[in-house]
Amino acid sequence: MQLLGLAGADDQISIPSPTETLVLRLLISKPMYGQELVNASEGALKRGTVYVTLMRMEEKGFLRSTSEPRPRSEGGLPRRRYEILGEGQRALAAAEMMLANLGRA
Amino acid sequence: MKAGISRVFGFFVRSRLKAEWIAIFLSAFLLAIGTLSKAGIGGSAGTLGSSVLGYLSVRLLFLSLGPPFRKVAEAARLWWSEGANHSLDTRIVRPPGSRLRVAMAAIFGKATSSRLFDQVIGDSQDDWLEAQCNNQIWLSRWIRVRLVIEIGMSIFALAWEKIVKNAFAVSKGGK
């Protein structure tokens, strides 16, 4: 949520919230659907709120989502696959660095 | 037209349970009206009596209309399906959230709906379908209830985020 000035006024990295950090950690290995994220988080993410978080992260430029229609045999609503972007990777690195510094202090 | 006739008459045939509910709601409504109108003890007894009568009359109406309506509904369905044998006991089941989805798109807009509510509804529909396939009736009912809770949580989270964002913008503008 906060903006951390690391190098200068133009070079700011947005520090993700704990939930956002968790989502970024899960997405770093491979792109996932929302339901996969909920399952992989082992109860830390809830289906009712995860999509709001994902939407916010997309607005921040951490993620990109693509709508994938289901095969005709399956039916159902199209799902969105979420993929981490460079900005998200930088934000995750910054959050982990910050956490490491806090642990050391 | 044919489908409409079959649907209207089929409603009365399949709706013994619905009739029960309609009768209960009607009697509760009559009772509430009577109680709210401050009718006193004698009046309350009268209201209770009229609500019981209302309940019984609705039940009687549905029970007596059932058999003749079944014949009309069966004929209409046969006419509609051009001879194919569809039983009246076969119900078309709507997956959970199909009406909720339309409502959410109308309230929050298509973009938010497709990114947020459609995803929640889609996941719930998957769970519901799995439960239906495994004949887990109570689980599928619970999934319907859980979907409403999840949609409520999503709306709350979305509203909270907007509030925080606006408060942040106002405080920033104030400085």
Question: Which keywords apply here?
Answer:
heterodimer; A: 105 residues; alpha+beta; three-stranded antiparallel beta sheet; two-stranded antiparallel sheet; 4 helices; 5 strands; 48% helix; 19% strand; B: 175 residues; mainly alpha; 6 helices; extended
Describe this structure in words.
The complex is a heterodimer of chains A (about 100) and B (about 180). With about 100 residues, chain A is of the alpha+beta class. Chain A contains four helices and five strands. In chain B, α1 crosses α3 and α2 runs antiparallel to α3. The longest helix of chain B has about 40 residues. Chain B is extended. The model of chain B has no long low-confidence stretch (mean pLDDT about 75).
Reconstruct the topology from this structure.
The complex is a heterodimer of chains A (105) and B (175).
Chain A: E1 3-5, E2 12-14, H1 18-27, E3 32-33, H2 34-40, H3 47-60, E4 63-68, E5 79-84, H4 86-104
Antiparallel strand pairs in A: 1-2, 3-5, 4-5
Chain B: H1 2-14, H2 16-36, H3 40-80, H4 98-108, H5 110-133, H6 137-174
